[in-house]
Amino acid sequence: MTGGESISEGPMERQPTGEDRVRMVARQVSEPRTANWIASEADWSHGPTKRVLEHLVDDGILHRDDTGGHTTYFPDYRRQALTEAIRLRDSDHSVEDLTERLTEMNAQIRGWKDEFDVESPNQLRETIADQVLEVTEEDRRREIAREWEQLQRRIEIVGFAIREWDFLAPATERGEARR
């Protein structure tokens, strides 16, 4: 054992590697990003980050866009959405639970629209520039705008899972329903 190791360190306590961090960042980007941006977010160097990104492209997990001035990478949003919808279907949630959650998410967005008199996260961000606000209020609005965008994506996925509830059922469940 070397000086940096601990007897009690187990697999659950392992720190994510640079490759782990690149994979996490790359799968969570909401818009195409460069390898440099992803490397910076993952706190890892450019060369190894680029290699990991290319492996993810080869595996069909990411897409690469070479049409602009810089190569960008972004997740296969369809695959992510389908995987998440399947996960929701296979979880302990019922279709009624998901419908209730969808109602709550829509109510949250309506509340922000009413509170700030805006129709979108970007309009909320504009209020920061248009008004003289305390720093804490600016931070709050930026955080709400990020959460709003996340909720919009979540609403799409949960809505899809509800609409396709029967189709997404595990094969064993569909087979039992036919008997």
Structural summary, described in words:
InterPro entries: DUF7342 (IPR055766). Pfam families: DUF7342 (PF24033). Keywords: Coiled coil. It is built from eight helices and three strands. It starts with 17 loop residues before the first helix and ends with a helix. With 179 residues, the chain is mostly helical. The N terminus is likely disordered. Helix 5 runs antiparallel to helix 7 and helix 6 packs antiparallel against helix 7. Strand 2 and strand 3 form a beta hairpin. Strands 1-3-2 form a three-stranded antiparallel β-sheet. The protein folds into two domains: 65 residues, Winged helix-like DNA-binding domain superfamily/Winged helix DNA-binding domain (Arc Repressor Mutant, subunit A); 100 residues.
Rounded mean pLDDT is 89
Tally of DSSP helical segments: 8
Give the N-to-C terminal Cα separation: 59 Å
- Strand percentage: 5-15%
Basic shape: globular
Protein name: HTH domain protein
Keywords: Coiled coil
Organism: Halolamina pelagica
InterPro entries: DUF7342
